[in-house]
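Practice set, problem 2.
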Amino acid sequence: MNPPVLFEEKAASNGMRVGIATLNAPQTLNGLSLEMVDLLAERLDVWARDAGLAIVVLQGAGDKAFSAGGDLHGLYRSMQQHRGQGAWANRLARDFFEREYRLDYRIHTYPKPLLCWGHGIVMGGGVGLMMGASHRVVSETSRIAMPEISIGLFPDVGGSWLLNRMPGRTGLFLALTGAHLNTSDAFYAGVADFRLDSADWPRFMQTLLDTPWAGQAGGPGNGAPPPRSINDGLLRRALLAHEPPAPLPPGPLRQHAFQINSLCSGNDLGAIHQAIAALEEHADPWLARAAATMLAGSPGSARLAFTLQQRTRLCSLADVFRTEYIAALACAAHGDFAEGIRALLIDKDKQPKWNPATLDDASEAWVQRFFEPPWPEGEPHPLADLGPPEN
């Protein structure tokens, strides 16, 4: 059986090494399992302490996807087993979301340059891995989305933090519609830093081995390690040297940004939902598909995503993860999460029976249950040590 994550260290010309981690489940579009999370977290910690390792590259096996999301089949089985037992009873959900969010936060705060090759499909949990990387690289095949409204979840893995930092109200639009970003819009939305043609990736990887990385190739050595900025700059230079010369035309998100900002303005989710729904017959297929996806999606997920963005707008990244953890466990216990997975991946009838069935029923009062800590009173938040809390 092939290992779910492949790890490799390659020596550069001056003896420093490049660490390469490859998600190795192409048959499931590199869907992220708990085992993969744990393997990545363990190796990233080792590499962080290794004075002879200059940079880390994170990629996905195959040519279709970096990662299309998390292990929804495993989470579905756990939700079925613990139905009606409350949010804290589902040990797999507790472990998966805690350790996944810890890994994502670790990547955001990693002490060395970390390049993520976001080729092909990047969705859900894949976005969580990519967004914290110091050098986020896309290709002509990249398709990035947070489509959780279609499975009764919400844009988690720090999605509330990420979407709040996109231009205008585009982050809210993407949360409500699950709309895909192409390569050009990935830059506009602030989720990509560099681009390479996929055919040029092998040549770029060889360039990394020809680069004179700063560090201590023989071990800790004497004196302080060189500043990280040296290797950040060397990696940036290598990426820019391989950047395709042709400029990218504006993507649909940027083309329609003025209209999207107008539709999603204000704090009345009902009015915003209605305005987006009116796009269902729009001549632009990207807008029409966005509206159709929202209308077919979970009303509860729409309310939860909207409320999360409102509540976390001024929060630190660590506090966003803490808030999302509580909401994710609530979704696993009594939200539409299990029903969305059933309709999309298990029975594949694509006829989910959402509860609540309408946005009016998914009210501001209804959504408060997704912010109530489920663990026994007096116990600390499982992610309490993730970072400094808000004052």
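Problem 2, part (b): a different protein.
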Amino acid sequence: MMAASGQSGREKLNFQLSLRRRGISDQTVLRALEDVPRDLFVDPRDKEFAYADTALGIACGQTISQPYVVAYMTEQLRTHPRHRALEIGTGSGYQAAVLSRLCRIVVTVERYRTLVDAARRRFASLGYDNIEVVFGDGYDVPETQGTFDRILVTAAMDAIPDSLTERLEPGGILIAPVGPQNGAQQLVRLRKTEAGIVRDDLIPVRFVPALSGLAKEL
């Protein structure tokens, strides 16, 4: 079993207050972030910074997003307990863990085998049994996975491919950072309506790039 979170009540309280001050108001999202021990998803060397509002590096040159961005993206996703959600880019597994507290099923796809194996161990140790971790290409999610009520992309895409929007159920929502690796990126929300796909531009963000294919190493 994984060691229990060692963060103090004061750190977690400050964590929640920081999110509220920055405008996160959905109580279900706030409870989900309170429930998931973020310090178990960061590099052990960074545990003291786990509840600081900053992005942190993890294995394979990837990052765990700052708590505000995780909270904001989750809030904008407008989840429901009946939903089946897809995440592109598992990373350490933190975002998928938060979604698992809000959705019926979470499927998360990661191209780095090292991250896949580590995330599976974390989820098992925490008893998060409604998450399926897929070693695969986020640009080519297996057809056998079906469609989803919500899709969340946690790496920047130059453009959102039709292969993802086509996986949305009617009324579904997709959120992704869009923009070049070394340029301005925008968090975008797509809603699948009867009239077609409706786009809303949200906030400027900075994410690592979403790459196609499986990683050849790690």
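Answer key, part (b): The mean pLDDT is 93. The beta strands are 56-57, 63-64, 84-88, 105-110, 131-135, 148-153, 168-178, 185-193, 196-205.
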